[in-house]
Amino acid sequence: MGDTFEHRPGRTITDADNIWMTLLTMNVQPVHFDAAYAAQTEWKKMLVDSTLTLALLTGMSVRTVSAKVVANLGWDKVRATHPVFAGDTLYAESTVLSKRESRSRPTQGIVTVSTRGLNQNGVEVMSFERTMLIHKRGHSPEDAANY
User: Fold this and answer.
1) Which of 46, 81, 111, 144 is such that its CA lies 20 to 30 A from the CA of 39?
2) Which of 20, 34, 15, 33 is nearest to 87 (CA)?
């Protein structure tokens, strides 16, 4: 516990990423896809949909903290702490908060991490906790599939 992992590479968000996510999720808030509307807001440009930020930061952490996941059990304490715009490059880091063996699944354990997303200037844009059910060593499908 307490180990911190930097998730690299970073990812630069484009207008296309943001507009596609907005369309895919049926988010009708025009600040995410209508530049003329967004120009009239306090931001003066389109905001990146925060669910894209959450998905991206979660995805960035997979290789390091959840490659052997059985299931995501939940996201808690999600905070959008700074606006994200197209052109921003995001980086993520996760710190292990807790881990324990599963009481009902002896070949699996439960791990909770705190993840922070930072932009290219080192400003935190989002933070959250994620709890996962994880295969123990020697018990994942990766072993049987020769990954």
Assistant:
1) 81
2) 15
